[in-house]
Design goal:
Length: 117
């Protein structure tokens, strides 16, 4: 979905997510996930992962304030550029397995918000 070295998202509970303006369009039609885009500029705005219906992944670049945000986890590191080294607390070659999600959410809830290291 991204031609960049990064695809940054913020995972939020689906029940707390509300679109306040406009009506996004579905795009990126490969796979089961529903990727939503701005109908005007076609920027990727958020994703509803089918395997995790309780969350919405919002593209970090869509947020107004990100200065106090640090990454907690990285995925798809099996494909990352060799010189990239992020200060994260969890790292996965692909995506976490379903049985890892509960412990990940628990670890995230205990996290102090600071980069690893």
């Amino acid at each position: 979905m991204s031609g960049s070295a990064f695809s940054l998202t913020v995972m939020v509970p689906a029940e707390g997510f509300t679109i306040t303006k406009g009506e996004p369009v579905i795009g990126g039609l490969k796979g089961d996930n529903k990727h939503y885009f701005c109908p005007s500029c076609l920027s990727w705005v958020f994703t509803r992962p089918m395997q995790l219906a309780s969350v919405v992944n919002i593209r970090s670049t869509m947020l107004d304030e990100t200065g106090d945000m640090a990454p907690f986890m990285e995925t798809c590191t099996g494909e990352k550029l060799s010189f990239i080294d992020l200060p994260v607390h969890r790292s996965y070659d692909v995506f976490p397995e379903a049985e890892d999600i509960g412990p990940l959410i628990e670890a995230f809830s205990q996290w102090d918000g600071k980069p690893a290291g």
